[in-house]
Amino acid sequence: MLHKLMRRRGAEVAGKQEALAGELFSQGVLPPTEGRIAERLFLEADGCMISRQREGKSRHELKAGISYEGWEKVGRGAGGVKFRTVGKRSFLSAGPAPDFLARWSAESASVCGCRAVKETMWSADGASWPAQGPDLFSVTAARLDRFHLSRSIKRALGFCPQAAHLVSPARAGKAEEVVAPLRGRPARAGKAEEVVAPLRGHLARAQDPAKRKRIFQAISYIEGCSERLSDWRLALKPRPGDRSVGAMESDVDKLIADRF
């Protein structure tokens, strides 16, 4: 009974989402908004593979997107000051990428008026399907997700000083205090060749086949995402308290992985 109710409710919601996206992208009809004003919007997208039962394919990718307007302090903890995202909304789908992106875009437009948003920042990993997102959302700047960037380098080099130098983030603070350190970190400054060069050096010296494979994968990954490598704060002027994007990974865990 619960499964039947959930499927029925899911079909109703999916139908409304499909109609909203169809009116927006086929007829150019902007949906009525909730009136929320956001001059700057951050968008992050990622997917999570789950196992399926009694299906043709044993694995399926669920897609998730989050949007938020910035960050605010919420107190202090053992690791220092704690922050949370402001005005965060989540959108999940088991459908194909084009449907997910179109419906997410239409849902976002029904909350914040499209004309009110002056700047939009997009963050995703190197997968092919999120690359279609920036056009649908009229993105101002698209960047590679910081978690995947850091993970690719640390998998290749381990937790060594050189890996830390390439990807270490700058702390939140005044704009001038944030931007200067970013320019000194090759990966965050978007200097792909300065990141790849030391990786090639490690590749030439590595003897272990598994390590050589990890380094080669990191080189290919960074070269393939070189145009989206730099930190977003080098493309758009940061405001006091702005941070590096990267809320998506924990949201994938909580919104999808933990549930399934």
Explain what this protein looks like in three dimensions.
The protein is an alpha/beta fold. It folds into 2 domains: 1-143 and 247-260, no CATH class; 146-244, no CATH class. Helix content is 42%, strand content 20%. The strands form 2 sheets. A 5-stranded mixed sheet has the order 5-2-1-6-7, sandwiched between helices. Strand 6 (119-124), helix 3 (133-136) and strand 7 (141-144) form a beta-alpha-beta unit. Helix 4 runs antiparallel to helix 5. The longest helix is centred in the N-terminal third of the chain and has 25 residues, at 2-26. It is globular. The two termini are 19 Å apart. Mean pLDDT is 86; it is low at 172-177.
Keywords:
260 residues, 9 helices, two-stranded antiparallel sheet, alpha/beta
Helix-strand makeup class: alpha/beta
Instruction: Provide the residue-averaged pLDDT.
Output: 86
Major beta sheet summary: 5 strands, mixed
Q: Number of DSSP helices? A: 9
How far from one another are the termini?
19 Å
- Count of domains: 2
Main sheet strand line-up:
5-2-1-6-7
Succession of helices and strands: HEEEEEHEHEHHHHHH
Please report which band the strand proportion falls in: under 5%, 5-15%, 15-25%, 25-35%, 35-45% or over 45%. 15-25%
Helix content: 40-55%
> How big is the Rg?
20 Å
Low-confidence regions: 172-177
